[in-house]
Amino acid sequence: MKTHIISTGGTIEGLDYENLNQKQTNTVAIEDILSNAKITSAYSIDKILNKDSRFINDDDRELIAKTINSSDSDKILLTHGTVTMAETAKFLGRLKIKKTVVLTGAFVLGTKKNSDAPFNLGFALSALQFLEPGVYIAMNGTVFNWDNVRKNNQHNRFETI
Predict the structure, then answer these.
(1) Distance of alpha carbon 98 from its chain centroid, rounded?
(2) What is the dihedral angle through the alpha carbons of 100, 76, 70, 15, rounded to the nearest 10 degrees?
(3) How many CB atoms lie within 10 A of CB 49?
(4) Which residues, 6 or more positions from 14, have their beta carbon under 8 angstroms from its beta carbon?
(5) Are 24 and 15 in contact (CB under 8 A)?
(6) What span, in angstroms and rounded, lies between the C-alpha atoms of 16 and 6?
(7) For residue 43, which of 24, 37, 75, 128 sits 20 to 30 Å off, Cα-Cα?
(8) Secondary structure of the chain in HEC code, one letter for each residue
(9) Alpha carbon 156 to its chain's center
(10) At CA 61, angle to CA 56 and CA 65, rounded to 5?
(11) pTM strictly above 0.90
(12) pLDDT tens sequence for the chain (161 residues)
């Protein structure tokens, strides 16, 4: 079955939120990352938001949930900014969605040479193939359950609670 990738914006797509006064436009596309990685498995991509995750609210999360629930796929990869990724995972996890949903993103801009975006995207796409239905975060080589994860802002990483 085809993986459904849902994009919400974020650093993974090269959106630089350090200077919030400037209008932001995507500088790298998820499609380009997957193409460069020679991904051959079937997928579709829908961009539903283009937001710094600091500004993602429960209305946006309802839209994400609606998009997931209306998808024909049972495998959902959600790209999301890292600032509120754990909150969105918890929101979705509490809904007990009967699909496998993996959230991923990047700590380093997707346009930077040392970006973790390609690795995280590939890792999440791979993890999605083996996980049981539920909601997870896949970042930097580790998979976290939605109800047992937080972002450690001091060390800029996700960790088990």
Answers:
(1) 18
(2) 140
(3) 20
(4) 26, 27, 28, 109, 110, 111
(5) yes
(6) 20
(7) 24
(8) CCEEEEECCCHHHCCCCCCCCCCCCCCCCHHHHHHHCCCCCCEEEEECCCCCHHHCCHHHHHHHHHHHHHCCCCEEEEECCCCCHHHHHHHHHHCCCCCEEEEECCCCCCCCCCCCHHHHHHHHHHHHCCCCCEEEEEECCEEEECCCEEEECCCCEEEEC
(9) 16
(10) 155
(11) yes
(12) 799 999 998 888 877 766 555 555 555 688 888 888 788 889 999 999 999 899 999 999 999 999 999 999 999 999 999 999 999 999 999 999 999 999 999 999 888 889 999 999 999 999 999 999 999 999 999 999 999 999 999 999 999 99
Task: Return the closest-CA partner of residue 145 out of 122, 161, 121.
Answer: 161
Is residue 82 within 8 Å of 105, Cβ to Cβ? yes
CA distance 104 to 141: 11
Q: Which of 101, 138, 121 is nearest to 29 (CA)?
A: 121
Pairing type for strands 157-160 and 149-152 reads antiparallel
Hey, what are 156's tokens? 């800029």
Token code pair at residue 29: 């596309």
140 phi-psi bin (left φ>0, alpha ψ -120 to 50, beta other): left
Tokens of 10: 């974020």
